[in-house]
Amino acid sequence: MIEKKLLEVICSAVEYLYQQRVLPENLGLEKTRKEIDGDYTLVVFSLLKFSKKAPEITATEIGTYLMTKMPEIVRFNVIKGFLNLILSDTFWIDLLISESKQPEFGFHKQISGPPIVLEYSSPNTNKPLHLGHIRNNLLGYSLAEILKANGHHVIKVNLVNDRGIHICKSMLAYMKWGNSETPDSSGLKGDHLIGKYYVLFDKKYKEEIRGLMDKGLTEEEAEKQAPLMVEAQEILRKWEAKDHETLELWRKMNSWANEGFITTYKRLGVNFDKIYFESSTYLLGKKLVIEGLENGVLIRKEDGSVWADLRDENLDEKVLLRSDGTSVYMTQDLGTAQLRYDDFHPSSMIYVVGNEQNYHFDVLKKVLARLGKEYASRIFHLSYGMVELPEGRMKSREGTVVDADDLMDEMFFTAESTTRELGKVDELSKEEASQLFNTIGLGALKYFILKVDPKKNMLFDPRESIDFNGNTGPFIQYTYARICSLLEKAKAAGFHLKYNHGAKPESLLSREKEVIKLLAQFPEIIKEAGVELNPAVVANYSYDLAKVFNQFYQEIPVLKESDKNKIKLRVYITFMTMDVIKKSMSLLGIEVPSKM
């Protein structure tokens, strides 16, 4: 790469001019800011201790040396302590042609070694997937694709939280008020039906709490003594004791929920290589806890509960088994981590989980380390921010969440409305139009969520996400469709989409060069997104490329040019832009339509 060569020659310049050796990683080489004439900029301030000269003189001396050693550099300019290097147009043309010969341009070779296990989704079988789950699923799927593009072997896993007190709440509500209702009899998806009873439990539970508080109990006392909560805890004990009737109801309701999840995943376009169920991992977790207790790294309190005392590591005490012997989330996560290690011996285990669980994962790693598990250090929690709506934060128990299926429906109808207003479906059949609305709607949803750094909280606005003129998925999709149309015209005019080695233009217009420079960054963008575990790097690059290409398209007549060699190059720039947009959007799980 040109950056590597520049760094090597700059090191040679420092040694030749100032008799000092400097390492490439200690040099400040960066891409030149757009408003300044240049391609790469060397910040020379750190080299003044070697030159003993003013910044401008040092930059000029190094620039002059580089000009004698690198024919790619045609000129340079100096602004204070910044040496701005300008590479020849021929260099950029040759770079475009040579790099694009790679069949998988931008993607990196397969890395040998153990896989990365990436967990995402992790739904609870007491409620349907909602907007927060959508961000989780989209982040997880996109990260898997980006890591694979960086050469890693990735195993996508899902942990279904199908046991615990929250599941028992839905079960109890169904037992009391369900009247044998089923997804078929109600016309509801299975996960929606279960969620209905979870909300109903919370409503009735709060009524009981208020009644007990009216009789003089504190809120904390009322929450513990409310009959519904006592009954739910009894169901959990029966479940862990393998009571036949309890297990039968649990299996039936979980099957409804899981069938609903599968439908939503398929529509959202995400998938998994392996699915774990908490009901199958918690026993291994309990075994690890008992072993830790026997080895003296965990403690049992007077009521029989088992704890990890992490106060010496700036955390607090964490319960691992309740006094009645039932397990908690941490218990099953210990078991799941062990099971994944046994299954895959991964180089790392990445958990895509919201930032409200930061403490949980700090504790998980500490407890595993105390249990002697060397893989504890391989656990990484990708902590992402919450998604809010203009109306505020969502709450599952109160039924104020935005359901994932409803949101995808809304995105479809919003895409239909916006697209029809713009007259972009006049020539499409009904079936083609429906497919387009779905592609645009999902593309808008996915892009709007993935363009935000995962660590940040975000506000989701469906209407804003489908703007065809902003930093949105539909804008990029429309650019791709425009490129497809242009290339069809180029083929009809007899031009090859792939560059054939005829005479090359000797110079570039500024817009041509701008697009080529962005295309050349694609492999670096994929690498950066993989290192940072941040799909927003790819998303915003895609937008920048689409925006710059549109400026190129508007200012330069691609096919209306007397010099056929220039047309060939412009067609090739267009073809490479199409290829990179499609690849980058696929890393986000977004389809790009050839017609809009």
Q: Care to describe what's here?
A:
With 596 residues, the chain is an alpha/beta fold. The chain has 3 domains: 2-87, Gyrase A, domain 2, CATH 3.30.1360; 120-388, Rossmann fold; 404-451 and 460-587, Orthogonal Bundle (Isoleucyl-tRNA Synthetase, Domain 1), CATH 1.10.730.10. 55% of the residues lie in helices and 11% in strands. It contains 22 helices and 14 strands. Strands 7-6-5-11-12 form a 5-stranded parallel beta sheet, sandwiched between helices. Strands 1-2-4-3 form a 4-stranded antiparallel beta sheet. A hairpin with a 5-residue loop joins strand 8 (299-300) and strand 9. Helix 8 (190-214) crosses helix 9. The longest helix is centred in the middle third of the chain and has 25 residues, at 190-214. The protein starts with a helix and ends in a 9-residue tail after the last helix.
Which descriptors apply to this entry?
596 residues; alpha/beta; Gyrase A, domain 2; Rossmann fold; Isoleucyl-tRNA Synthetase, Domain 1; 3 domains; four-stranded antiparallel β-sheet; globular
Number of helices: 22
Gap between N and C termini, in Å?
A: 37 Å
Form type: globular
**Helix percentage range:** 55-70%
Biggest sheet strand order reads 7-6-5-11-12
The structural class is: alpha/beta
The CATH class assignment of the largest domain is Alpha Beta
Task: Report on the biggest sheet.
Answer: 5 strands, parallel
Average pLDDT number? 92
Q: Report the uncertain regions.
A: 392-399
CATH arch. level architecture of the largest domain: 3-Layer(aba) Sandwich
CATH superfamily of the largest domain: HUPs
> How many β-strand runs?
14
| Gyration radius from CA atoms, angstroms | 30 Å
Count of domain modules:
3
The fold-level CATH name of the largest domain is Rossmann fold
Task: State which percent range the strand residues make up.
Answer: 5-15%
